[in-house]
Write a structure and sequence with these properties.
This protein is an alpha+beta fold and 163 residues long. It is built from four helices and five strands; from the N terminus they run βαββαααββ. It has a three-stranded antiparallel β-sheet with strand order 1-4-5. Strand 4 (144-146) and strand 5 form a beta hairpin. The two termini are 27 Å apart.
């Protein structure tokens, strides 16, 4: 396959170039830790092993499209934690039956409504992004990469069809 941009013959599928730049290994080695034990500064050395992954700069640039991770505050458990964080003072204010109870409860309800509105709008945005990933992934699987001029393209003979 020749590059449509420069006419060079050093071309590979993008997926092949990406996989060539990713190495999976396992490593072992010591780890140094510093902490406080019974009010004294302590130093410890622990041995360990585990999988490692190294990625070249080219492979990082040619990585397949994946859905980005949602921010932590856009997860259901974050809503629960926020509800407890803001809800307990609200319940405490109700128990005291003071004038500030109304203010604290109105503030709690306003915070809940604001969070629900933000969560709803951001969830729609993230859903739209997630829906684009399968088509982008199909394009990436058919894409070619020129090692001479760094041009990326999908040959016209390989049309992209989504299921």
């Amino acid at each position: 396959m020749t590059c449509p941009s420069c006419g060079g013959g050093q071309t590979v599928r993008t997926e092949v170039a990406y996989r060539g730049g990713v190495q999976h290994n396992s490593g072992t080695g010591p780890s140094l830790g510093v902490g406080m034990v019974a009010g004294e500064l302590a130093l410890g050395v622990v041995g360990g092993s585990g999988p490692t992954k190294s990625i070249s700069d080219l492979a990082r640039a040619l990585a397949p499209p994946d859905a980005p991770r949602k921010p932590w505050w856009l997860t259901p458990w974050a809503a629960g934690v926020a509800g407890v964080f803001f809800g307990l003072p609200s319940l405490g204010a109700l128990a005291t039956s003071r004038g500030s109870a109304l203010f604290v409860n109105v503030l709690f309800i306003a915070a809940c409504v604001a969070y629900i509105m933000l969560y709803h709008s951001k969830s729609k945005e993230w859903k739209a992004i997630e829906n684009q990933v399968p088509e982008a992934r199909l394009r990436w699987e058919k894409e070619w990469y020129c090692l001479q001029c760094a041009h990326r393209w999908v040959p016209e003979a390989e049309t992209i069809t989504t299921k």
